[in-house]
Write a structure and sequence with these properties.
It contains 14 helices and 8 strands. The protein is of the alpha/beta class. It has a single domain, classed as Alpha-Beta Barrel (TIM Barrel), CATH 3.20.20.140. The chain has a 6-stranded parallel sheet with strand order 1-2-5-6-7-8. A two-stranded antiparallel sheet has the order 3-4. Helix 1 runs parallel beside helix 2. It is globular, with a radius of gyration of 19 Å. About 35% of the residues are buried.
């Protein structure tokens, strides 16, 4: 069932791109991740026959982390294509805020759970050795990397490192046999600007990831004005960075064109 739904979705997206190429030059494919072998077949079809320029995954698959070994073939094949993997948070109110409860309240799962979910997924992928195995992998973390840009000090200085390591020695990174300091891997991620146009978070995210790793995105159409507010506000937020025209063009189009091979 999941494979068939993914196929229908990708066929529909490809058709939209054929009809309106000036608006939708390409698309990223959906995959059935409850069947990894089927997911790879659909990836090959979507990229090879339909013209998809990447795939979108979610931060967990029915509660399983993307860093689980069963999903690694997806990343390997995408690295062979040299195309990006877009990763979007997936967390609902069924994730409680506290262990004593059964559901999240007051939309905490959305307002704060999604940024955490993105961050946890990226960290688990990094500590699983993804970038040591596949240094050419291109991972795009939605919503400017979640919490990552705001906590580089915590990434750099881990909890166990405080008590059992040194400034240069991270025990957890050593256990995972990472070849570089953890923060270096987080800098290898790409991030989009879907932050609702807020100036300060956009500046912070850009400062962490750098112009070459930031891509314009807005979260449209998910606002009460069917996306118009998000697009306008995000444009203002990126323009408020005050970058040179060349750098601005990279964020608005150039980086995506390079990554998606458009």
């Amino acid at each position: 069932m999941a494979s068939e739904l993914a196929r229908v979705a990708n066929d529909g997206l490809a058709e939209i791109c054929r009809k309106y190429p000036h608006v939708f030059p390409s698309f990223v494919a959906a995959l059935p991740l409850n069947d990894v072998e089927g997911g790879i077949k659909e990836m090959d079809r979507a990229i090879g026959s339909l013209g998809a320029r990447g795939v979108q995954l979610f931060t967990n698959v029915a509660g399983k982390p993307l860093s689980a070994s069963e999903f690694r073939p997806i990343f390997r094949r995408m690295a062979e294509y040299d195309l990006p993997v877009f990763i979007h948070p997936m967390r609902g109110p069924n994730f409680p805020d506290y262990a004593a409860e059964k559901a999240s309240e007051d939309e905490v799962w959305f307002s704060f759970g999604w940024p955490y979910e993105t961050t946890a997924c990226m960290a688990r992928l990094i500590y699983s050795g993804l970038f040591d195995e596949l240094p050419q992998a291109k991972i795009i973390s939605h919503h400017m990397g979640g919490m990552i840009p705001y906590f580089p000090a915590k990434i750099k200085l881990g909890f166990r490192q405080i008590f059992y390591g040194t400034v240069e020695r991270n025990p957890v990174a050593e256990e995972r046999r990472l070849k570089k300091p953890p923060l270096d891997y987080f800098k290898m991620l790409y991030a989009d600007t879907a932050l609702g146009g807020e100036d300060a978070p956009t500046r912070c995210g850009h400062a962490f990831f750098g112009t070459s790793h930031c891509l314009f995105a807005t979260d449209a159409p998910f606002d009460p004005e069917r996306g118009r507010a998000l697009i306008a506000d995000t444009l203002k937020g990126v323009q408020a960075l005050g970058l040179a025209e060349k750098e601005m063009n990279l964020i608005f189009a150039g980086n995506a064109q390079r990554l998606l091979k458009l």
